[in-house]
Amino acid sequence: MVTPKSRGTRWEYRVAHRFERWGYEWRRSGSSLGSYDLLITKKGRPQFLVSCKKTMGDRLYVPAEEVEELRREARGMGARPLLCFGFRRTSPLVCELGKLRKSGGESYRLERGDGEPLDGWLGRRGRGCRRI
């Protein structure tokens, strides 16, 4: 039986392998206790702290406190904070924290049209990088 926890873990690995294809290394935090799920590095240096979210619904809500904690931790490591997310049967999407929009309460809302495909985003960032 597929549980929400195992679905989330598989999603984290799926996102991590996308970064790997573009020449990055990654380390999974291993639990949902911290502000991030993946530490993405290049040549041993932190590049991105990634929080991964997956839902089977049509929209996703991320608590503002969680976003701010990710932002603070990334700043302390010298990395860029990212939110990688997906909906039922979508490829990984990415949203930089500055592009998130508040839902009116104490959370941010993401829908299918938000963000952009992770591979396209990585391709633009790494014009000198080869996809493996």
How would you describe the overall organization of this protein?
The chain has 132 residues and is of the alpha+beta class. The protein has one domain: 3-Layer(aba) Sandwich (Trna Endonuclease, Chain: A, domain 1), CATH 3.40.1350. It has helices at residues 4-21, 64-77, 118-125; strands at 25-28, 38-42, 45-54, 59-63, 80-86, 93-96, 107-111, 116-117. The strands form two sheets. It has a six-stranded mixed beta sheet. A two-stranded antiparallel ribbon has the order 4-7.
Describe the SSE topology.
Blueprint (H helix, E strand, L loop, with lengths): L3 H18 L3 E4 L9 E5 L2 E10 L4 E5 H14 L2 E7 L6 E4 L10 E5 L4 E2 H8 L7
Parallel strand pairs: 3-5
Antiparallel strand pairs: 1-2, 2-3, 4-7, 5-6, 6-8
Summarize the structure.
This protein is α+β, with helices and mostly antiparallel strands. Helix content is 30%, strand content 32%.
The chain-level structural class is: alpha+beta
CATH architecture: 3-Layer(aba) Sandwich
Overall number of strands: 8
Rg over CA atoms: 14 Å
What's the tally of helices?
3
* Biggest beta-sheet profile: 6 strands, mixed
Query: How many domain regions?
Result: 1
Strand order of the largest sheet: 1-2-3-5-6-8
Mean pLDDT across residues: 88
* Terminal Cα span: 33 Å
Low-confidence stretches: none
**What name does the CATH topology carry?**
Trna Endonuclease, Chain: A, domain 1
Q: What level of helicity do the residues show? A: 25-40%
Give the overall form: globular
